[in-house]
Amino acid sequence: MGDPRLNPAEYDFIAARRRTEAKTKSAAEKLTSLEDAVGRVKDGNQIGVGGCLFSRTPLALMREILRQRRRGLTLARNLTCNEGELFMAAGAASRVMTAWMSIGLPWGVSKILRHYVETGAVALEEWSHLALGLRFRAGAMGVPFLPALTMLGSDLVGVGGLKTVQDPYTGETLAAVPALFPDVALLHVHRADRFGNCQIDGYPHMDADIARAATTVLVSTEEIISDEETRRSPDRTVVPGFVVDALVRVPFGSFPHECYGLYEADYDHFAEYCAAIDARGPAAVGEYLERYVYGPPTWSDYLDLFGGERMALQAKRAKELTG
Amino acid sequence: MTGHFNASELLAVIAARQLRDDTTVFAGVGVPLLAAALAKRRHAPRLTMVIEGGIIGPQIAPGRLPVSTNEMRAGHRATMLPGITDAFLFAQRGFVDVGFMGGAQIDQYGNINTSVLGADYWRPKVRLPGTGGANDIASLCREVIIVTAHEKRRFVERVDFVTSPSWLRGDGSRKAAGLLFGGVSRVVTTLGILGFDPESKRMRIEATHPGVSTDALRQNTGFPLLEAPRIEITEPPSDEELEMLRALDPERRFLG
């Protein structure tokens, strides 16, 4: 399953630039539906996923990809949470590129990760957290690699096929972290105007780099703001409209993961999810997919499964932490 | 002995004492973060914590301890949220004195495995969560302190997979690989404190906790341990230390 050789398309900065040059970079309105936005994702695509672990995960967009039954995807995300488990169990992802995968310390090593990787059904390509960040940053910069002092000497080198480079000035050996130009970027942001100018509060994570590195950029946003509001705080804009291909308004679009300042992650939901896996193994994720992904037709139907009270409580907790 | 404490409390208190005032620490979640928070409250008020989720200078709220490195709880009252890549680049630039992290499997040269058990990476016997930022912390901080339970299954002669490099195979192999800085200086465990022989870079006993013999340390280690010229006995956690520590984790999320 695994192939330690890098796929040259991943760091082909010339082809990536040509794709971007060929794109329409219009300042037109980008607002659309989840169904339409996600229609741009093709089987076999490599997808850069914004947020980190259970923070600002673009769950509404990811749920729609599963509903559209895409196959053979590669997910590239710095820390991967249970959204990765859903993609593995649904048969949507055959490869996951990440630095770490599980939900969080209290819930232990992911049994789903173990099941799919140990049986060879899914290839887990591990890069260090910084190296993955630099892969996206090199992509965002339009260069084939970035020199770095990390990941050297470890067995991670052989996993992803990291090469080294000799510094032409000092002669020292550096890691040559290859660029990653994902086919699609998925982001969830706090606010955007209808032209796709995006603003994020709190943790920036790697979103701005992922968006610039990708060929196609799909964004969900908690809130749509006016053009005037964007222009009053342009310093807050982290992704400009011309980078964005499709924008969807999805309040609570990361739930039950967190969105900084708006709602805290629902630990109780993680505990219930893990308890079901402890009891019934990977089949429990199949049941979860039926109940939360394939069953409810819209995101608002999905949120109804959690209930307004739970969401209001998580919103209150977020205010306590950031207020 | 002053009062009673469990293994996690012992570990957190002894680890906290390793941190000096006027320094910076890259802390992993769990016991390392608790230990850093304790150090800051008790003896190192000018210590700055850096967390890999892209957080500088957080003030962790007691009872609201984070379980991950990049949730709101982790960044409570932080002074800067620079983004993940940039948080690590502060370490690459040399701004982080100590990397403070846990370990899964550790070998006699201080290398750590948190990736896979078994010989075939792509079809492992056990798939573990992975490096996260541990590889970067081990590569980039000025020194690294490991905080871990002392169990024979964790302390193995050779790790199955080097996720986070310390001294690699000794004999200057760390520098030869291009890792010009840092390396593991100490391993704080539930039985004592280990360090590394300056020449061979093999692990050695530097201190034992009260009531623990060097034999007990050896019996719980899967490779021969060297000994420092003088082996210290650590001071047990004081009532003051325990009280401050327990106040940080009233839910006993990490203290057990």
List the keywords.
heterodimer, A: Glutaconate Coenzyme A-transferase, nine-stranded mixed sheet, 13 helices, B: 256 residues, alpha/beta, Glutaconate Coenzyme A-transferase, two-stranded antiparallel sheet, globular
Describe this structure in words.
The complex is a heterodimer of chains A (323) and B (256). Chain A is built from 13 helices and 14 strands. Chain A has 323 residues and is an alpha/beta fold. In chain A, strands 1, 2, 4, 6, 10, 11, 12, 13 and 14 form a nine-stranded mixed sheet that branches. A three-stranded antiparallel sheet of chain A has the order 7-9-8. In chain A, helix 6 crosses helix 8 and helix 10 packs across helix 11. With 256 residues, chain B is α/β, with parallel strands linked by helices. Chain B has a single domain, classed as Glutaconate Coenzyme A-transferase. Chain B contains seven helices and 13 strands. In chain B, the strands form three sheets. Chain B has a nine-stranded mixed sheet, sandwiched between helices. A two-stranded antiparallel sheet of chain B has the order 5-6. The longest helix of chain B has 12 residues. The two termini of chain B are 20 Å apart. The mean pLDDT of chain B is 95. At the A-B interface, strand 5, helix 5, strand 6, helix 6 and helix 7 of A face helix 3, strand 8 and helix 4 of B.
Radius of gyration of chain B: 17 Å
Count of individual domains of chain B = 1
CATH evolutionary superfamily of chain B: Glutaconate Coenzyme A-transferase
Q: How many strands of chain B?
A: 13
In DSSP terms (H or I, runs of 4 or more residues), the helix count of chain B works out at 7
Largest sheet of chain A: 9 strands, mixed
User: What's the tally of helices of chain A?
Assistant: 13
Please render the helix and strand layout as text.
The complex is a heterodimer of chains A (323) and B (256).
Chain A (H helix, E strand, L loop, with lengths): L12 H10 L11 H5 L7 E4 L9 H9 L5 E4 L2 E2 L1 H8 L3 E6 L1 E2 L9 H8 L4 E4 L2 H13 L3 E4 L7 H5 L2 E4 L6 E6 L5 E10 L4 E2 L7 H7 L2 E10 L1 H6 L4 E3 L6 E4 L17 H14 L2 H12 L4 H8 L1 H15 L1
Helix pairs in contact in A: 6-8, 10-11
Chain B lengths: L6 H11 L6 E4 L3 H12 L5 E4 L3 E2 L27 H9 L5 E4 L3 E2 L5 E2 L2 E2 L8 E2 L6 H7 L2 E6 L24 H4 L7 E6 L2 E5 L6 E6 L5 H6 L6 E8 L5 H10 L8
Parallel strand pairs in B: 1-2, 1-4, 4-9, 9-10, 12-13
Antiparallel strand pairs in B: 2-3, 5-6, 7-8, 10-11, 11-12
Helix pairs in contact in B: 1-2, 2-7
